[in-house]
């Protein structure tokens, strides 16, 4: 167990050292969440000024959706980008010459994802409070459950993306930036699932994020915590995480057998 923890920490330290020596990397982590928050913050301010009744609630729903969705986005990209950095530095083959196991690699990438997410999202949360008087923490302790479910969704999406990179090489790298953005319209971030076309609603309900954001809107509108939505989101995350883990293990084994771990990215 101690050896496993040491190997996981060793890989984490390799990535942390990159940020310690490069302030532009640290700035980039917070840049996009802060930019998104500023854009939607101005939009929410305009909406609040045009709607004397319910405007503040609508503005809160928009800002809450933006900030919570950034948790999923940064979690997904944190895993995918950290994995891509191993490829770009031609280090993936060297990593697995060591005793590092695939599950330890995944554990290190997830830990780095959590750190990257916190560094990127917390400044945006603070600025939303300072600039627009929106306190995300006013959601209460349930915010922790929302965040955990969105992080878990980001992780299983990123495992699927990493699997595709192992299978298709550099041609699949664009998926690291595009997959979760493509799921945004179906994730009910800014509107309820009921506004989607009927044919798309089953797909939306199969995504944990839809249940999280339906729950967030219920808390902001009525103060009621919809525990059933949180339970469904957790079960969906577990199911999708098992599928993504199986896919990663399969593609990793195939990549190792055909020697792609040494040549991927070339």
Overall number of domains: 1
Topology pattern, helix = H, strand = E: HHHHHHHHHHH
Number of helix segments? 11
How many extended strands? 0
CA-based shape = globular
Tell me what portion of residues adopts beta-strand conformation.
under 5%
Task: Report how far the terminal alpha carbons are from each other.
Answer: 35 Å
Helix share bin = over 70%
Describe the main β-sheet briefly.
Answer: none
Return the structural class: mainly alpha
Rg to the nearest angstrom?
Answer: 19 Å
The stretches of 5 or more residues where confidence is low (pLDDT under 50) are none
Mean pLDDT: 88
Q: How would you describe the overall organization of this protein?
A:
The chain has one domain (2-263). α3 packs parallel to α6 and α3 (55-88) runs antiparallel to α7 (175-183). The mean pLDDT is 88. The chain is mainly alpha-helical and 266 residues long. It is built from 11 helices and no strands. It is 78% helix and 0% strand. It is globular.
